[in-house]
Amino acid sequence: MESGDLKIFQAVAREGSITKAAQMLNYVQSNVTARIQYLEAQLEIPLFRRSNRGMTLTAAGENLLEYADKILTLMDEAVKSTQYSDIPAGPLRIGSIETTAAIHLTPLLSGYHSRYPDVNISLITGVTHGLLQKVLDYELDGAFVYGPIDCPEIEHVKAFEEELVLISEPGKSDMNELLTKPMLFFDVGCTHRAKAESFLRETGLTTYQIMEFGTLAVIVDGVSAGLGVSLLPRSTIAKAEEAGIVASHRLPEEYRGLQVWFVHRRDNIYSSALLKLIQLINDKHCKLIP
């Protein structure tokens, strides 16, 4: 069993498709198929269930994926341990909650790139729970998430502070009336959603409607159109409020604060690229609440 076979197996397991894995790896599809078949023949057990909807792991495949993740991560760390330099280079895989990516990461990453142009940054967005899991699974070097995070495997650095506000269509100010409207949020795992549900329970509302949307822009547009209300960081809706698209309303103090942390695994061998990003975050010590 070679590391190249494990890399192909891992890609197919993650993508659920030979075609998608081949595209991701930039390999010929027939080569990916042949390597998976060779691996299964070598182990004398099926690793995937094949169907018209794609490929899913068998129990044996799930066991192998757990070890493949560890082996490939260790190999990556071995390479990183030989490449430490005061001038970082190579890949840096990070994730971010969308609200932070939309407002704060462009200037931060622009400054980082101007200092370290040889680092190849890749960024994905998601919700806190999903991003944290990707960090724990070694799929990301680090991520900007809401916190603090209480996890023994995770180190974290405070990056930004935010104020959470209720937003509505313009011209509405009665908080009791607004709280009866549908709540527009990202999917399950959204920190704003958890705070909203706690806030609603405190106000005595036990039944409420939640609508799930995929992007920040769609949520803001929906609120502006009177579809409902939402809880979002003030910085993310400042331009929309200035343009008269939405109105914001302050929450009670105990629901107002939001902290964004940069998290990374405690047991990683840190690359120069990751260490320089952590250093930049610490140096900036961003404070967004006056």
Short description:
It is built from 13 helices and eleven strands. The protein has 290 residues and is an alpha/beta fold. It folds into three domains: 3-82, Arc Repressor Mutant, subunit A; 90-161 and 258-284, D-Maltodextrin-Binding Protein, domain 2; 163-256, 3-Layer(aba) Sandwich (D-Maltodextrin-Binding Protein, domain 2), CATH 3.40.190.10.
Structure description:
This protein has 290 residues and is α/β, with parallel strands linked by helices. It has 3 domains: 3-82, Orthogonal Bundle (Arc Repressor Mutant, subunit A); 90-161 and 258-284, D-Maltodextrin-Binding Protein, domain 2, CATH 3.40.190; 163-256, 3-Layer(aba) Sandwich (D-Maltodextrin-Binding Protein, domain 2), CATH 3.40.190.10. 47% of the residues lie in helices and 23% in strands. It has helices at residues 3-15, 18-25, 29-43, 59-82, 98-103, 105-115, 128-136, 175-178, 191-202, 216-224, 234-242, 253-256, 272-284; strands at residues 48-51, 54-57, 90-97, 119-126, 142-147, 154-168, 183-185, 210-212, 230-233, 247-250, 257-265. Strands 3, 4, 5, 6, 9, 10 and 11 form a 7-stranded mixed sheet that branches. A two-stranded antiparallel ribbon has the order 1-2. A two-stranded parallel sheet has the order 7-8. Helix 2 (18-25) packs across helix 3. The longest helix has 24 residues, at 59-82. The radius of gyration is 22 Å and the shape is globular. Mean pLDDT is 85; it is low at 286-290.
